[in-house]
C-alpha cells in the first residue's frame, strides 16, 4: 500500500483524525527518541525471561487476548471504523481476523516442529531446533490497523519473541486499544506486560526501530517506498526483515467464467474497503469476447453501491483515508485518460463531502485501458479498476505478470486446464493465486505475502512462524568414535 509520511518528520504529536468527517478525534504525544530507546531496552530485557517460558505456556497470553478481543469485538471494530473509515461489517471482520490468528497461534504453540534428519555417520543424530529470535519491531499501516499487528504479535509471542509496535500515525487510538487489551491479557495470566511495547509517531520512530541492532526482526507493512528505505538499513546491520509491501492485484476473466460469480468477486475486491487493501483488485484482464458484457455488469453493480458514512446500514464504500489519497486517485485517473483510457464509471468526489470538508468520499472508478501503461503498473491506493482485454491465455498471463508487484491474483474460469495453468510455475507470479474468488479477503490459515516489489515476506498462517524464530542444527554423537563427515581423514 502507499500511505507515506515524508522522511525526517519529527513531529512531537500524533493526530487521530476520522476520515468520516475529517475531524480531529484526539491528539497524542509522539514517542521521543528516548521513549523508543527505552521501549526497545524493556522488550529486550523481557525477552530474556520470555524465551525460556515453554511455548504452550506463552500461548496463555494469546489465548486470553483472543478472549478479550471476542468480548470487545464490537467496540474495537467501532474504533477501526472511526479511524480507518471501514464499514462496520469489514471492521468486525478485521477483529475476527485477530481472533482467528490468536486461535491459530495457540494451536501452533504445540507445533513449532523441527526436523530430524538421517546422519551419514554411525552413532550420530542430526536434528534442528527452533528458538525465539529476540525483539520483533512491527510497523503497520492504516488500512489494517489491528489485524496486521495481531498476525505479527500473536505469532511472535508464541514463538518466544517480544514486540515493539509502531502503528500507522493515522490510527493511533486503535493501537492504544490493542496495546491495552494485550496488557490486560498479560496481567490476567501473570505474564510480564513488558513483552509488548507500543511506540507512536511518524517516520523517525520507524527509522529508529529499523536501525537498532537490538531489534532482531523488522516486520513492516506499507509502501514499496517504505520497504526500499527499510530493507538496506536492516541488511546493513544483518538484521532480518519481513516485508509486506504494495500489490497490483489482477483477475483474469476467461470466456468460460461464471459471470455472476466473477462480478461479485470483482466488486468486493475492487470497491470494498474503498480500494484501500494491499489485496484490492486493481486490474481486470478479460477475454475480449466477454469484455463489454463484464464491464456493463460490473458498472451496473457499482451503480448499486452506496458510498457514505461507514457506520450507516447499507453503505458499502466508506471514505478514503485523507486528501492525499484523493489527490493521488485524481492524478492517476488523469494520467490513465491521457494514456488513452476511458473512465466508464465513477471516479469523482461525492456526497457527505462538500468542498470545504476534509472528508473524501469517491465513487469507485472503472477505467478501460487500451494497454497496460505506466499508471496501470503503479499501485494507486484508491478504488480504481483498470480493465484490459486479451485474446489468448498466454497473453493474459504475460500481461498479468508484467507489473513490478506480486501480491495477490485470481482467475475466473470453469475450465480446469486454464485454472491449473494459472496456478502452475509459468502462471501467476504472485504469493497468492486464487481460482473463482477475488484477490482480497484471504483467510489467516495460509501464508500471506508476495513476490517482487511486494517484498517476499510471509505472515499469518502456514509456516510463516519460522520467520519469527531462529533455527539451530544439532549433530549429536552418542558413539565413542569420532568419524568425520564427507569421509575426511584427519590422522
Ligand atoms: C492488507 O491489506 O494489508 O486478504 C491486509 C485480505 C486481508 C488482509 C489484507 N485478510 O484482504
TrEMBL record:
Keywords on record: NAD, Oxidoreductase
EC number annotated for this UniProt entry: 1.2.1.3
InterPro entries registered for this protein in UniProt: Ald_DH/histidinol_DH, Ald_DH_C, Ald_DH_CS_GLU, Ald_DH_N, Aldehyde_DH_dom, ALDH7A1-like
Domain Aldehyde dehydrogenase: 13-471
Subunit structure: Homotetramer.
Family per similarity comment: Belongs to the aldehyde dehydrogenase family.
Protein name (database record): aldehyde dehydrogenase (NAD(+))
Species name: Antrihabitans spumae
High-level lineage: Bacteria, Bacillati, Actinomycetota, Actinomycetes, Mycobacteriales
